[in-house]
Amino acid sequence: MNADDVKAWLRKADRTPLRQLVGERAESLVHQYGACDRSRTWRTLPGTSQVWNRWTGRPDYLLQGFADLSIVNELDVVEQDPTLGQRYGGYFRDVFASWQGLASEPVLAEARRVLGP
Hints:
Layout: H1 3-12, H2 16-22, H3 24-35, H4 38-41, H5 45-48, E1 50-52, E2 59-61, H6 64-80, H7 82-98, H8 105-115
Antiparallel strand pairs: 1-2
Helix pairs in contact: 2-3, 3-6, 6-7, 6-8, 7-8
């Protein structure tokens, strides 16, 4: 399956089962997280408060939940494979520090704990 096939499948994916399981707000957040174009979003997020959608090419507006989910997902990955923390820790520290005021303080504190100062 190539990238175009994946994009076509994702556009047709039925979001209803997840929505029924976790609720509309949580499903929307999961969808926004999965659609995020990190290369366009992460570094500019503090100034734009926009999450760029990689499938539509349009921005969605930031939710604190998106910032928190993005951080805790990366922290989980780093905790599962510490070599990724060594490799990308500086990048994550810089980006997440710039998200002060966007992400919740408890999540930012956890990032500092996992990634170091």
